[in-house]
Amino acid sequence: MYAQVIVDIVHENVAHTFTYLIPEGLTLAPGQRVLVPFGPRRLEGIVLSLTETCDLPPEKVRPVAEALEPYPAVLPALIDLAARMAEEAHCPLAETLRLMLPAEMRGGRVRVKEEPVARLAIPAEELEAAIGAQGRSVKRRTLLQLLQGGAWRPVAELAMLVRDPQAPLRQLQEAGLVELGSRELLRRPGGELRADVIDPPLMDAQREALEALIPAVDAGEGRFLLHGVTGSGKTEVFIRLVRHVLAMGKGAMILVPEIALTPQMVGWFRSRFGEVAAVLHSRLSAGERFDEWRRIRRGDARVVIGARSAVFAPVERLGLIVVDEEHETTYQSDRHPRYDARDVAAWRCEREGGTLLLASATPSILSFSRAREGRYRLLEMPTRVMDRPLPEVEVVDMRRELILGNRSVFSDSLQKALRQCVARGEQAMLLMNHRGYNSFVSCRSCGYVVKCRQCDVSMTYHVGGADNRLHCHYCGATEMPPETCPQCGSRYIRYFGAGTQKVEEELRRMFPDTGIVRMDIDTTSGKDGHAKLLDEFRSGRARLLVGTQMIAKGLDFPRVTLVGVIAADLSLNLPDYRARERTFQLLTQVAGRAGRGDTPGQVIIQTYKPDDPTIRSAAAQDYRAFYGQEITHRRMGLYPPFTVMARLLVEAKLPGDAQRTAEELSEALDALLGTEKELGKCVLLRTLDQPSVKLLRGKHRWHILMKLWAGDAAETLCARLNDLARAHTGRADVYFEYNPVTMM
Q: For the whole model, what pTM was predicted?
């Protein structure tokens, strides 16, 4: 027998399978990881297929060195998925196969964590005599008593009852009374929870959604969009669906957009399903990630909760994938090979006979338009659980606050509401979607703004004890703030704008005796950083929570009665056709954190654009009104879903290399469109220019931005653009982006 193996090298020259002989006594299967000789080295590879014949001469076929595991690490469906992704991304198969495995599995065998254990080695009827024969050794007698029953017990557990048990255990082993060994110890993120929570009664809208979903799950088909207002009980629908899927003997995935949401979702599912629920995300330790992957692969865990990369989890007999908060752009990977977890989820459901459920209180314009067209089945949950009211929303005009002399980041209305909230013993959340202390540092004499030397963006002032510095939020560079202007030498250097640090400082000044938590990238970077801060708030030890957009969605705190938005129009000013959509989603989602318990909620939105239709729609929490406005804007401006946005992005260390490469690509595109004129007919707009961020992480940037009429010709042209990007080799990196996450 022969194995067709793809070796773990990402290079076009070896982007094909190699044939290896399977030695006598070694049994292999497609998807299994192996070590194979490759030139003078031994490399990892994955078996793609087995054959009984080989066209190569015997002396040219080398044998497989060994199998790294006794089971296939990559399921057949995931091999197919990797092949499809490699074809669409025009990259080597080895590169997409890496997505299917935890990074800890690369580099040979993975060390499994073990713990020493002990058990009784004699029949129960001989135990009393054995205890009596131990003379004056209290430790040996106690250990024998603890081991009665014959089950393996961890030595660490015995050590809690008998001090330093290792020596007496070895003595008992030498006497033939005890057997010592080791067993696999699984590292479990998030702690242990028993499945002992009683199901709450279903509301009518939840029951109607399940009545539509369960037949589709039974049939192993269907794509649904669940549009439910914040607090409508969508998670309970997920839980009931997953229970149904498990009863069928199948598995399920729940995808969330933010790692901050994962601990809460894991807690909910473990409280219902116990050990059957597993978690996968990038903040786990290497050992935790590998152990959770193994539990899923072995079938011990059949429910997977995780962020974007969890869509590649090795769930067999997949019956359901839920994409919660489906509107979030974090489901799109901006690293090669680029992918959208929502598209991957749809493909897996189609390939493996599962049901896809997208869910959001603020669906993306693209998803909702697809539901209106019938490509998804639309389900709606228009009211909150227990008929709780949506929060009352007040829009504050910050221009008027300035006229009245209020220079604080808090309006008078928000200050008053915060004091009342704290006095009542309730909780409040404040959204400031910019981290740091000040937004930027500028010279009031000449207008110079301090920018990052590696990126074409202003640096943000951060306060950190004695070491207050300017930070770049793109590349992470830091530097001391200037005392004089680097451009004109003036001493009129001033700090403008506000960030989460400044908001936190003002809160501490207002409420010196109240617990305050700040959640942004700076405070959640450590292991379990999100979970620790959220637990501090959930427990009530902290009453005020300040954060960036990571606090705006999915979180459920029944004691939160007040939500404040510090600068509602920040995202409205971005040079992106989706700026209105993202602003509406952010404001509606964060408003939905208020009033989820028995006490009605209050929301105060501070803005310099109080009459903007997007802010007004968000204040009314009226998605359909916003959708009507936005789809009209998109139709008039010819933006997706009526067109397709595509771009070739060029990045190089030298500005000339970036510009020349972009011009060469533009010429190649001219030749392509001149040859295949049918493709040219779908091009509505095309520009060769620098994006608004001209320098990023030390690389100069150019792009070819295209607007295409949606249709088959656009899809074909996008495939050719991808070919152009992948075929380019030179001093610049070239990336193809389909409806890019950002135009900047």
A: 0.88
